[in-house]
Amino acid sequence: MHTINTILDLRRHLDMCRAAERTVGLVPTMGALHEGHASLVRRSVKENDVTVVSIFLNPTQFNDPKDLERYPRTLEADCRLLESCGGDVVAFVPRVSEMYPDPDLRHFSYPPTDSVMEGAFRPGHFNGVCQIVSKLFTYVMPDRAYFGEKDYQQIAVIRRMVADLEFRLQIVPCPVVRDESGLAMSSRNSLLTPEERALAANIYRVLKESIVLGATVRDTHDYVVNTLNAIPGLEVQYYNIVDGDSLADVSEWDEAEHVVGCITVYCGATPIRLIDHIRYK
Ligand code: AMP
After folding, report:
1. Is residue 102 part of a domain?
2. Which ligand 1 atom lies nearest to the CA of residue 34?
3. 107-131 pLDDT tens trace
4. Does one domain contain both 192 and 79?
5. pLDDT at 24
6. Is 186 in the pocket of ligand 1 (CB under 6 A)?
7. pLDDT digits over 14-24, tens only?
8. Does 180 map to a domain?
9. Ligand 1 atom closest to Cα of 149?
10. Does the C-beta of 187 come closer than 6 Å to ligand 1?
11. pLDDT at position 11, please?
């Protein structure tokens, strides 16, 4: 594993790799790495000759300055974790001024994928995601780019952007990694107290219970929202049961080939915002 800080050095290194016909995988991250990130890195190491892991806390995707301020920063531990993944891994760790020498004035719009759920509650979030991911795609020119299904909606938005801008690469979605309690691993989990962590485990428990209910879409939705809201310390911001590809709401199970429930819950006193999803079909 070695670290590169500038776009110029990154491009030089990858040009040499490609000249030697080596394939390149990209894993974009914001740091504070955990086993969820490591699963993407290991997959890329297995499927590519070189893996670039970007560690960049992208300011343009934070609509809440407090969220950005308290986001965990653990670069040394991140490097140790990447080291433990083995393979030919490059950590790309640029400064903000490197990625945004000038304000990024580009505007991306892919409704409904980027306008519902996270898009509705975090205005500008997906625009920032598209800004940084499109820059990374341009600089790295990966053969494959790895994204976690934990951020289910993000993958749908990035697929639209890839089609729109005609990037020649494969998006590889990777399954959610959970801790023993079922809680989806997230960098923000480190901000939870042990009690809040125990509370947060209810999110996936209730989502799983809702599968076996065998109820209508409406009743399934209400069961998840009412059960979680009845737990002190949890507050559902939204729960949408959607077409897993277009992300449009469904009202009947047979309305779409894939049906997914996407949830965001506020947890604890701070509160910390947690996202998760469940596949019904
Ligand atoms: P982030 O650093 O939160 O921007 O995440 C970087 C990448 O890791 C994204 O593609 C996330 O979806 C993915 N990721 C984060 N947490 C997990 C997890 N628990 N399981 C699988 N992938 C994850």
Report:
1. yes
2. 16
3. 999 999 999 999 999 999 999 999 9
4. no
5. 98
6. yes
7. 999 999 999 99
8. no
9. 12
10. yes
11. 98
| Same domain, residue pair 112 and 18 | yes
Kindly list the catalytic residues.
37
Same structural domain, 23 and 137: yes
Residue 86 lies in a domain: yes
Predicted local confidence at residue 214, as pLDDT: 85
C-alpha of residue 148 to centroid of ligand 1, in Å: 5
Q: Are 202 and 268 in contact (CB under 8 A)?
A: no
Of 139, 178, 169, 133, the closest CA to residue 47 belongs to: 169
Collect contacts of 121-127 with beta carbons under 8 A, ≥24 apart.
121/237, 121/238, 121/264, 122/63, 122/64, 123/63, 124/60, 124/61, 124/63, 125/61, 125/62, 125/63, 126/61, 126/153, 126/154, 126/157, 127/60, 127/61
State residue 234's pLDDT score: 98
pTM comes to 0.97
Kindly state whether residues 258 and 211 are assigned to the same domain. yes
Ligand 1 within 6 A of CB of 147? yes
- Average the pLDDT over 146-162 and give the result: 98
| Closest ligand 1 atom to Cα of 27 | 7
Q: What is the CATH number of the domain that holds 267?
A: 3.30.1300.10
Question: Which pLDDT score is estimated for 213?
Answer: 86
Whether residues 167 and 192 fall in one domain: no
In a domain, 281, yes or no: no
The reply to whether ligand 1 has any atom less than 6 angstroms from the CB of 128 is no
Query: Residue 262's domain spans which residues?
Result: 187-276
Determine the straight-line distance between the first and last CA of the chain, rounded to whole angstroms: 40
pLDDT in tens, 252-273: 999 999 999 999 999 999 999 9
* Number of domains within the chain: 2
CA of 26 to the centre of ligand 1 (A): 13
Cα(214) to centroid(ligand 1), Å: 30
